[in-house]
């Protein structure tokens, strides 16, 4: 298991994640611990070829690559809207109180998601110039404080809308609830349409 700093995103800034690469080829990611437990989400399977490790994060549209001949784990990441780097420190393989998102039971009694602050994405200038329209659907998890984390784009008609959609999710927030062990999923959709000119 690796404690990693992912850097280079113009709006998100430095991001901290835990990555784990299992012997069966599976790669998982987790944000920092929240309320005493850790939630793991699936990434693509990891691949090693000629001393290079590679895997993908489809939630954020990123492709990760590392040179395994270096003393530390890290390298570069790329996405359709940019790129950056990542650097990791190895941790113990023993992890307590983990939850795999695919099997978690914390969604049984879900509190309602009530908006506290919903950001609206800016229409990309390039999309306006090229008269491009589209739709994006992003799903995520919400903790008891109402904070959104682990966004995952599940539908995207055009890559040009990825960055602005994630920007809006980063700046949105829900009203929290009392039970600290409840983490619930949510989704939002964004329609990108241009006003007709008469």
Brief characterization of the structure:
By secondary structure, the protein is mainly beta.
Please tell me about this protein's structure:
The protein is built from 2 helices and 15 strands. It has 198 residues and is mainly beta. It has 2 domains: 2-101, Beta Barrel (Lipocalin), CATH 2.40.128; 115-192, TonB (TolA/TonB C-terminal domain, 2-Layer Sandwich). The chain starts with a strand and ends in a 6-residue tail after the last strand.
Secondary structure category? mainly beta
CATH architecture assignment of the largest domain: Beta Barrel
CATH class of the largest domain, named Mainly Beta
Shape: globular
Largest sheet: 10 strands, mixed
Residue share in helix: under 10%
CATH topology of the largest domain: Lipocalin
Percent range for β-strand residues? over 45%
Task: List the strand order in the largest sheet.
Answer: 5-6-7-8-9-1-2-3-4-10
Unreliable runs, pLDDT <50, ≥5 residues? 101-108
The overall number of domains is 2
The count of DSSP E runs of length 2 or more, i.e. the number of strands, is 15
Computed over alpha carbons, the radius of gyration is 18 Å
Oligomer: single chain
Q: Please, what is the average pLDDT?
A: 84
């Amino acid at each position: 298991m690796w404690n990693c700093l992912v850097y280079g995103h113009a709006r998100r800034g430095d991001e901290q994640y835990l990555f784990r690469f299992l012997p069966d080829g599976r790669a998982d990611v987790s944000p920092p611990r929240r309320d005493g437990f850790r939630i793991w989400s699936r990434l693509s399977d990891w691949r090693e070829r000629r001393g290079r490790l590679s895997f993908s994060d489809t939630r954020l549209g990123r492709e990760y690559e590392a040179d395994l001949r270096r003393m530390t784990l890290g390298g570069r990441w790329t996405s359709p809207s940019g790129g950056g780097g990542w650097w990791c420190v190895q941790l113990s393989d023993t992890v307590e109180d983990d939850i795999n998102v695919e099997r978690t039971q914390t969604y049984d009694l879900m509190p309602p998601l009530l908006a506290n602050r919903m950001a609206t994405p800016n229409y990309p200038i390039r999309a306006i110039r090229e008269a491009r329209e589209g739709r994006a659907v992003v799903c995520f998890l919400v903790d008891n404080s109402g904070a959104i984390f682990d966004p995952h784009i599940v539908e995207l008609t055009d890559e040009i809308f990825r960055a602005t959609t994630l920007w809006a999710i980063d700046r949105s927030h829900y009203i929290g609830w009392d039970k600290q062990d409840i983490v619930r999923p949510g989704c939002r959709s964004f329609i990108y349409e241009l006003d007709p000119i008469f």
